[in-house]
């Protein structure tokens, strides 16, 4: 089994979104962390995903109170 730790932004984006649905294997989590150290754009994407998740949760709570 070959473990690829160097990932490009497209691969990291896919992994970040996949992690929203299911836990990633340790080597994928490590690859994402390593990429975040050297990339300026991907941490912003992670922040945007978190913001969208929070907004949708708030909207869900708001719409359930009606």
Walk me through what this model shows:
This protein is mainly alpha-helical and 66 residues long. The protein has one domain (9-64). It has three helices and no strands. Helix 1 (9-21) crosses helix 2 and helix 1 (9-21) packs parallel to helix 3. It is elongated and about 50 Å long. The N and C termini lie far apart (52 Å). The mean pLDDT is 92.
Mean pLDDT: 92
Q: From the helix content, strand content and strand pairing, which structural class follows?
A: mainly alpha
Distance between the termini: 52 Å
The best one-word shape is elongated
Question: Gyration radius, to the nearest Å?
Answer: 15 Å
Tell me the major beta sheet. none
Share of residues in helices: over 70%
As residue ranges, the low-confidence spans are none
Question: How many H/I helices?
Answer: 3
Q: State the order of secondary-structure elements, H for helix, E for strand.
A: HHH
Number of domains: 1
DSSP strand tally: 0
Hey, roughly how much beta strand do the residues contain? under 5%
């Amino acid at each position: 089994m070959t473990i690829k730790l160097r990932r490009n932004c497209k691969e990291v984006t896919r992994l970040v979104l996949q992690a929203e649905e299911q836990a990633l294997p340790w080597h994928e989590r490590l690859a994402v962390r390593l990429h975040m150290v050297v990339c300026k754009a991907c941490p912003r994407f992670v922040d945007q995903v978190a913001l969208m998740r929070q907004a949708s949760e708030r909207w869900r709570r708001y719409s359930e109170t009606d």
